Amino acid sequence: DQQLVEVGPYKVVRHPIYAISILMAMGTTLVFPTWWDIIAGSGMVALLIGKLLVKGSLLGEKLEGYTLYRVRVRYRLIPFVW
User: 7: which of 20, 39, 49, 69 is 20 to 30 A away, CA to CA?
Assistant: First the structure.
């Protein structure tokens, strides 16, 4: 019973929650620049990007209207970039 949300930040990017999570991981790495945090932050960013790519393709198959939504909202995470 999932519905497509097209208001708020979802008008600008398709995955705003992932964008904030990636910013938090990068911010933590910048605040605590140890080798462990760099590895953990990079791993988290890679996993989140992989998850959003898989989720995007699944939503395109299963959620009605998502294909048109992808046309209207071109950017996944960062407006005018990706």
Answer: 49
